Hints:
The chain is mostly helical.
Amino acid sequence: xxxxxxxxxxxxxxxxxxxxxxxxxxxxxxxxxxxxxxxxxxxxxxxxxxxxxxxxxxxxxxxxxxxxxxxxxxxxxxxxxxxxxxxxxxxxxxxxxxxxxxxxxxxxxxxxxxxxxxxxxxxxxxxxxxxxxxxxxxxxxxxxxxxxxxxxxxxxxxxxxxxxxxxxxxxxxxxxxxxxxxxxxxxxxxxxxxxxxxxxxxxxxxxxxxxxxxxxxxxxxxxxxxxxxxxxxxxxxxxxxxxxxxxxxxxxxxxxxxxxxxxxxxxxxxxxxxxxxxxxxxxxxxxxxxxxxxxxxxxxxxxxxxxxxxxx
Length: 312
């Protein structure tokens, strides 16, 4: 079936964060800086991990892929947002809207499961250190990351396939800065119950299962850490997963509230604030958190900077 036969609306208007021209210029500058920090921060993390042989471990293998995902996660929405801040016509075609939505779901789902893999890695390292080498061999690393991408793909596929079945025949203004599914559903002139059920079910099954897995891992981790007699030992054990715990908290709290909150507490401003948090701010904060809270990353950074100073 052709797109023309499928819908009478062929493009949408992204209303964005503000209609004030002066505010749009200000927002363009702010989000340009945020995007630059996101790109530079995550690329630096990837280069450091790739360069330093002491970081060729499961934990940093997952962090490398998390940074890779965050670069593209932010790139799905921010460049288009920046263009729209300066453009008179803030339009996006139906096809491009679906493509943006697909990659948003793909990268969000992949990130969630990479974070779960990182939680499992910390669980084995702290709770079963004697079997760590066998339990987290390189084949397992690759399988866990491949599983994260596969899960993210099917999470994206099922939601975008059902989005293609929506019919749009009225207003085409999306009250958002990107083509996320919830605001798009509000524009459909056909029944969206199936889409809502699919979205909520996929979030609950995939997201909640990942969250529960991560939560159980940390219950065991905290229980094990508390049994360590020395305060120094407890601090050292917990410091290896504190960065991950902060990142997980930032992502899960905002994403779950966004997609599972009752409609009675929904508001445009609140929805956009939470979307900004987990789709734009979190990818920027992840490398900062891991750089500031992780001694091994800071050591590797100092070594690389030291080499540059020596060469100069």
